[in-house]
Design goal:
The protein is mainly α. The protein contains 13 helices and no strands.
């Protein structure tokens, strides 16, 4: 949440996020411990986690067991099946209390499956279902995720709008400023994109993604030396990262253009 692109880039780890508490609250202490152990196993040994979750489900494990099975499918790369199961869980009696979180996870799984239209649908449902009772950080998460789906569909103005609302709820998210800068660049709002990138770099002065993006904006503004400086800084900040790889590619193109 795109398979998940650089602009938004949250990976599979998002899908192991904080629905543990709500579901565990529906179980007794032993079952809660079983739930936590199952979720931990989805990361270390998802095949076994999936099999264990199905046995637990058949023994009456309910929503926690089904949720663990769905997250094991995510870890196994079966994103579409996982997304379908997560969304279905939000409709059952034991899952409705945590429907926004389940739908948010389903949206991330659809993004990983490269079905952004499906992701957009369930993420919109998550916001509609829970917007009155979501904590600000939770709503911000959902809006950023929905912005990923919108960006994958090249609906940049709507993505920018969701990111603006997310940042009004949680203004300390450097990655969201970078993402909104990308959306604004795609709308040819270069000055506004630069404003976002300055905010991102104020929060993280060596943020490679922000440096990469600012270099792109500078190139579009025909400021090649400023672009070069930012791309070199992105490489220096994290030499083996994806931003550095993209920066090297941009530098090569810049050098070819100036020869």
């Amino acid at each position: 949440m795109q398979h998940i692109t650089q602009a938004g880039l949250f990976g599979v780890a998002l899908l192991f996020a904080a629905v543990v508490g709500p579901a565990a609250a529906q179980t007794n202490t032993v079952e809660a411990a079983q739930y936590r152990a199952c979720l931990a196993k989805t990361e270390s040994n998802p095949d076994v986690a999936y099999d264990d979750a199905l046995v637990w489900r058949d023994q009456g494990g309910g929503v926690p067991a089904q949720h663990c099975a769905a997250l094991a499918l995510v870890a196994l790369g079966k994103y579409a099946e996982a997304a379908t199961r997560l969304a279905a869980l939000a409709e059952v009696s034991g899952g409705r209390a945590m429907a926004p979180a389940l739908l948010g996870q389903a949206g991330n799984a659809w993004l990983l499956a490269e079905f952004p239209s499906n992701a957009l649908s369930v993420l919109s449902a998550a916001l509609t279902t829970g917007v009155q009772k979501l904590a600000p950080q939770e709503e911000a998460d959902l809006r950023i995720d929905r912005a990923r789906a919108l960006a994958a569909l090249e609906r940049w103005a709507e993505a920018e709008n969701d990111l603006g609302k997310a940042l009004s709820l949680d203004p300390e998210r450097a990655a969201a400023y970078v993402f909104r800068a990308t959306a604004r660049r795609m709308e040819n709002k270069l000055d506004l994109a630069l404003e976002d990138l300055q905010l991102a770099l104020a929060l993280g002065p060596k943020d490679p993604a922000a440096l990469l993006e600012r270099g792109i904006v500078y190139r579009l503004q025909e400021k090649p030396e400023l672009a070069r400086a930012d791309w070199l800084a992105a490489i220096a900040a994290e030499p083996e990262g994806k931003a550095a790889e993209a920066a090297r590619g941009n530098l090569e193109k810049l050098d070819l253009k100036t020869q």
